[in-house]
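User: I'm writing a tutorial on reading structure tokens. Could you give me a worked example: one chain, its sequence, then its tokens, then a sentence or two explaining what the tokens reveal?
Assistant: Sure. Here is the example chain.
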Amino acid sequence: MRSPHQAQVTPGDPPFNPEAGGSVGITELYDSLTPPPQPLPTPSAPPPLRRHHRAALLAGAAAIAVAGAGGITAYASAHKTITLDVDGKVTTVETFQGDVADLLADHGVEVTDRDSVTPGTDGTLRDGGMVVVRYGHQVTIQADGERRTTWVAALDADQALATLSGRSGDVALVPSRSGGRVTLPMRLDADGPVNLVVGGETQRVADGAANLDELLAANDVTVDADDRVTVERGQPVSPGAPSVTVVVKQVQTSVERTFTRLSFDTTRAEDPDRFEDLDPYVATEGAVGKRVTSWDVTRVDGRIVDREKRATAIERRPVDEVIMYGTKARPEPEPAPEPEPEPAAPEQAEEPEPAPETGSVVTGGVWASLAECESGGDPTTNTGNGYYGLYQFSQPTWEAMGGSGLPSDASAAEQTMRAQALQQQSGWGQWPGCAAALGLY
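And here are its predicted structure tokens:
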């Protein structure tokens, strides 16, 4: 039988010859073919690495270290702390966003083109930076004598007026009216006091951050539909003084009347029954009239600023004075009679009886008859028709004859004396009715 293993022949050993004599056992045959066991080698350090393999390992480790450091740096640069001011509400936020628009979106802040964002919505965020949002408000302004509406993005009235004055010069805010309230869509001054002027009187209000209607209510200022309210801005008179002023002008409207005296005219009329050589007399006393005019009057803080005519009417018409002039010619005198014997001396005419000194009724003679005809003989007669006393003097005629006061207040004697003087001056035509009835002319 052949062994499957090829015999290993050690150099120097005699070759195996199967034909040689003697017997060889299987053990000896195996032993002769198998070398003796060798001792195990002593362990030693692994052989050193080659230089280029070591360099590769160092480079890999360095790359890992650099990558880790870069990640830390990128994280640090992406994280930011931002101060966010939304219409005066200030918060500090942490963000990884890179621009303003994304930051506002993250915090639910919606803006339109009416609003103001600083920096702009496309601005880049930087750690420690600040984003300010001011919402736009539609306001009514008074500028250059005209009123109009406009939009302005501002925190308070102070900022709004500062912005608007740059556009139109002298500007005032005009509050809106609703349900008896006077309001603005923003606070007055978030950082300082304000002045409140009511009826021309000024007071300083420390809390300018209030809304307009709150400020008026807190200071017991009631505004009605006619009153005018504006919010104005000026330079503070001193550090810390108000720059915003609320002006309430109290407007009062009323209907007032004025009276105008209407003069009378004097007319001349003819009396055909009166001799032309007699003095004229007043047939109708003149009387002034009165015109009444009503006005719509507007006062602002007690001063009249407007007055418009409402209506006019004549309350009493004037009465023209009528003066009568005689036109009757006297008859031609009778021709002189033939001379006659020297007549006896004419009897001296009796002196008229003097009127009584007191207010008693005149009696006797022509003057008593005339007084009885004119006034019933009562020296105190005053019927309200403009004629007074025994002989029904008009006031101008009485005064022209030297009298004072009312004729009806004078004594009967004084009335008779002045009536006699009037008759001597103007004739019996001063009492045309009664004189004619008594046959005096």
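What the tokens reveal: The longest strand covers residues 303-316. The chain is about 25% helix and 30% strand.
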